[in-house]
Amino acid sequence: MANKNIIEEQNMLDPTICFKARMSRDNRFDGKFYTAVMSTGIFCRPICPARAAKEENVRYFKNAASAQEAGFTPCKRCLPEQAPEQAMPLQAKRMSESLLTTHQSIETIAKQFDLSERQFRRIFSNHYGLAPKQYRQHHSLLLARKLLLTTTLSIADICFASGFTSLRRFNEQVKSVYKLTPSQLRQQQSRATDDNFVNIKLQYRPPFDWQGMLKFFHLRQLPGIEKVTEHSYQRSITFDGKTGWIEITQLPNQFALNLRVMIEDYSLLNKIIVKVRRMFDLDADMSVIHKHLSQDETLAPLVEKFQGIRLPGCWDIFEFSIRAILGQQVSVKAATTLAGRIAEKYGSPLTVVHEQLSYCFPTLEEMTQADFSNIGLTQSRIQTLHTWLDFYQQYPQVFEQYKNLEQLEDTLTALKGIGPWTVNYIAMRGLSDPNAFPAADLGIIKSLYEELKNAAPVDKQNERFKPKTRDIIARADKWQPWRAYATIYLWLSLAAQE
Ligand SMILES: [Zn+2]
User: Fold this and answer.
1) Interval between CA 48 and ligand 1 midpoint (Å)
2) 372 CA distance to ligand 1 centroid (A)?
3) 56 CB-near residues (< 8 Å, 6+ apart)
4) Where do the structural domains in the chain lie, given as residue ranges?
5) Does the reported pTM lie above 0.90?
6) For residue 253, how far is its CA from the centre of ligand 1 (angstroms)?
7) How open is the CA angle 403-326-93, to the nearest 5 degrees?
8) 57 C-alpha to center of ligand 1: Å?
9) Backbone dihedral region of 375: left (phi > 0), alpha (psi from -120 to 50 degrees) or beta?
10) CA of 174 to the centre of ligand 1 (A)
11) What are residue 36's DSSP bridge partners?
């Protein structure tokens, strides 16, 4: 049954924990490992409703791709292709995102990360238990399977959306791994057909504070581009001139969001899924983050109170970089108003029809032609925007080549008007770096003010106390490597007081 040439799983999975988790069908372990049953050749999620197999008859895998590579087939009851993704360190996550959303060779992708092909393969295999090429292949197959079973997209659309480049090869591979053709596979499951749009279920591991996430985005909503209601997040999207919109809602009684997509070209679907997973931080392993941050006296009650608060990301890094610059030293409300004016004045109309959304955030080209007059910006902020646009035009890869905070800080703070706060805020929400920390943030200062004041030498306490950025950085030291999550908690503590 199993392939001979499988790369053995890393010794990262503890069978005792896996056993307990699958016996109790513990949702918090969903997507963290898979159980393959030797006698049936099927692999399952820990939450599978089927009767659990005996321990001596199973093998554990870290991800669905590895189980499939070893010759096992996804279970029809728990649908492993729909499980949440593994939580991964930022670099490993970015490596797999590049791998899965492009057709570039491993060599080209490795270069982006400033690695040799060999180094890239080694690091990748250490994290994912498979060589990059095999991982890409199985991930594509699993995504195709998910789309075949859950959407009404045409088979050709599914082929390209899941990363295949030829229909013939798609058919061959599906047949060889699943023993059924794509259309036979599709007949196995009844799909919802009452909707003209494509709906994709995006699973997460609980806890997940959906309302908290919506509130965060609501405060920062750009009218005409975003629409945040009590139950949904909607926005216009654009990829190289192709436009559309997405709507994200929570599925009742499930640990999953629903992503509804309308786009001119559905081969972009995988890119959209990857972006949305990141934007809503669906792959985070909150048990690890909660445990770490709970050791801090200030954060412990917040972690307790706001379970499942994630790190809200962004849809597009360029758009976000502009918003970060506009957010320098002003309130969230003021920054949002300014961004809204820029979007309205310089954005292009949304070509697909949507009741609430009317245009797309301006592209780099549209922005470079803007003069930013009459929107309430100071001369120096306008200058910073121009400096930033010039730089970005010259180095559009600056974020793709992100290695670490120090390096990005060195590069960007060399630009006039861009300081460590902006860089860290971009890294935190734009690049989802869990350790980014905008230390000079007004919200952070406010939330730590009393604590830092009390810790100051007695003779300093009565003067007009002003915390130093280096003291805040020192205070945040023990929150590493999750300082970005700590920041979100501190912001929440302020919002809760208001
Ligand atoms: Zn199952």
Assistant:
1) 4
2) 56
3) none
4) 15-78
5) yes
6) 19
7) 25
8) 15
9) alpha
10) 20
11) 43, 59
Contact between 489 and 293 under an 8 Å Cβ cutoff? The reply is yes
**Burial (CB count <10 Å: 0-12, 13-18, 19+), residue 374:** exposed
> What's the pLDDT at 401?
84
Give residue 462 CA to ligand 1 midpoint distance, Å. 64
**pLDDT confidence of residue 17:** 94
Helices and strands, counts by H and E, the chain? 23, 11
Cα 371 versus chain centre, distance: 33
DSSP class of residue 109 equals H
Q: What pLDDT shows up at residue 194?
A: 54
Distance 74 CA to ligand 1 centre (A): 7
Using the structure block, give the residue that is written with the tokens 């800080």.
409
Q: Judge contact between 20 and 83, C-beta under 8 A.
A: no
Burial class (CB in 10 A: 0-12, 13-18, 19+), 337: middle
β 242-250/198-203 pair status: unpaired
CA–centroid distance, 164 to ligand 1, in Å, is 26
CA 173 / ligand 1 centre spacing (Å): 22
pLDDT at 362: 96
Structure tokens at 128: 């994912």
pLDDT of residue 241: 83
Tokens of 478: 């023990």
Helices 117-128 and 90-101, packing angle to 10 deg: 110
State the CATH architecture for 15-78: 3-Layer(aba) Sandwich (3.40)
pLDDT of residue 386: 97
Neighbours of ion ligand 1 (CB under 5 A): 44, 48, 75, 77-78
Distance 69 CA to ligand 1 centre (A): 17
Centre of ligand 1 to C-alpha 268, Å, is 29
Tokens of 474: 């020192």
> With a cut of 70, which residues of the chain have pLDDT below it?
1-12, 189-196, 460-462, 498
